[in-house]
Amino acid sequence: MDDSRYFSFNYCHINDFYIIDNEERPKVVLMQFVCFVFFYASAFENVAVFMGSIGKEGFYSYGHSILMIFNVPLTVPIIEFLIVYSTLRVLKTINIPSWTKPFIAGLSAMIFDFSLDPVAVKQIFQTSEGIIGRWSYYPLPGEPVIYGEPVMNFTGWIYIAGYWTAFILIGECWHKKEWLQ
Question: Are 83 and 161 in contact (CB under 8 A)?
Fold first, then answer.
């Protein structure tokens, strides 16, 4: 079994089992997982990859994997979900205002990204199609980069994690108010 397929399969099931065993409403969280992976993150990632494929500078592309959601390896949105989910699990144990949680989740995702993407940029493989990278970026002229990764990418993680966290918190608040009536 291909490494990325094995990784995706195992992480999906580990995530599922953890959620089923530890969540108050596991079906809701599993639905959040499906929506995030297949709609929210995949749409965001595929738009950026499409922009890179038509020659727009400032965007990126992924190498090919056995399990893809259009032009994005399945592992990418799964990892993004796990980062946001784990951050929200920690934040639920801390007594802080809900309005701060999207900002904290975004910053947490950005910090995780400091260790993930610099490694992905350096992973280059020789295949029958030629040399292919796990992740390639098409920078704007003069754009600042950190470890071969554009600074703009870090803000992207803040947005994708922050907005998703806000959507989850709004949904949880709406759900609680509905049950109180």
Answer: yes
CA 37/CA 181 separation, integer angstroms: 32
Letter for the amino acid at 151? V
Locate the domains of the chain by residue range.
Answer: 3-180
The per-residue pLDDT for 102 is 95
Dihedral (C-alpha) 96, 99, 101, 102: value to the nearest 10 degrees? -170
Predicted confidence (pLDDT) per residue in 129-144, tens digit:
666 667 777 777 888 8
In contact, 87 and 158? CB cutoff 8 Å: no
**Residue whose C-alpha is closest to residue 33's, from 170, 164, 171, 172:** 164
* Contact by Cβ (8 Å): 42, 70: yes
Q: Which of 113, 106, 107, 104 is nearest to 146 (CA)?
A: 113
